[in-house]
Amino acid sequence: MNLLSDLKSKSCKVLQTLKRAVSRESVETESEKKESPMKKSIVRKLEDVKEILDGVDPTEVMHLKGFGSGIESTEYDDQILEMLSGYNVIEWDGDDYNNDSFTRLLPLAMAKYPKCRFVAFKFLSDTQEGWPGNSNFPDDFDFDVVGVDNTGKTDESGGVDYAYLGIEAINATGATKTICLGGGGVPKQEFDRGPSSVEWTLVPYTRLVNNNVQEASLMEYVEVQPRVTLLEQKK
To answer: How far apart are CA 4 and CA 38, in angstroms?
Structure first.
């Protein structure tokens, strides 16, 4: 009887050990899934842009930008997607993917125009911190990343000069068209400081900031700057 009891006891201990091992392996696997970056991409240099464009004419490059969050309306989205027809490259300033950001259109544009190439311009300091691994884009959204050195570059208040990033992107690709979905102060700075050859289409999206409606900063240019055209909704 003692021998039988000992065998049962040892069998129970072995089973418990196996269960703990399986449980621990499952937890580690889930942890690895959570910690593994969604995307890994080689960060290219500004001088590589010509190679990335691969002979694409600057008139076939569209720069997309706007509010990075807070866009609740989608009323112009289909119209914007139609406007992207015929462009072989779509570039943006490396904003993350969000459902309430202008970046929500990027994966939709890829699905609609699968031959189009997508290029994100991002400060090198951000790529060194793991971007685009933490960019939140869907796994099947493929794009090139171009790193821009922002060493010593600050805006008038001493903060990050995001307008410099957008201007460098425009200069690198030679794009002459920009579609701006709303947009805070940065697009206005880019308009003021960037190439005068760029024509802007302003999408009149707004957002709420501290319960106040924020309009696009470029709205004040619609009537006075011929390079800014307000997008009107199709009827």
So the answer is: 53
Cα maximum dimension of the chain = 99
- What is the C-alpha to C-alpha distance for residues 191 and 186, in angstroms, rounded to an integer? 9
| 114 half-sphere exposure, CB direction, 13 A CA radius | 2
- 6 falls in which pLDDT band (50, 70, 90)? low
* Helices and strands: H and E segment counts in the chain: 7, 10
Q: Distance (Å, rounded) from C-alpha 215 to C-alpha 67?
A: 10
Q: Compute the distance between CA of residue 126 and CA of residue 71 in angstroms, rounded to an integer.
A: 24
What is the pLDDT at residue 29? 40
Helix (H, G, I), strand (E, B) or coil at 97: coil
DSSP per-residue string spanning 37-79: -S---PEEPGGGHHHHHTT--GGGEEEEEE-SS-----TTHHH
Distance of CA 60 to the CA centre of its chain: 20
Residue 192 to residue 163: CA distance in whole angstroms: 10
Token pair 């709420």 in the structure block, residue: 208
- Which stretches of the chain are DSSP H helices? 2-35, 49-53, 77-83, 105-112, 124-127, 162-173, 185-193
Q: What is the pLDDT of residue 19?
A: 47
Give the C-alpha distances (Å, rounded to integers) separating 175 from 56, 152, 157, 160: 10, 26, 28, 23
Helix axes 162-173, 185-193, angle to 10 degrees: 50
Q: What six digits make up the tokens of 78?
A: 């289909």
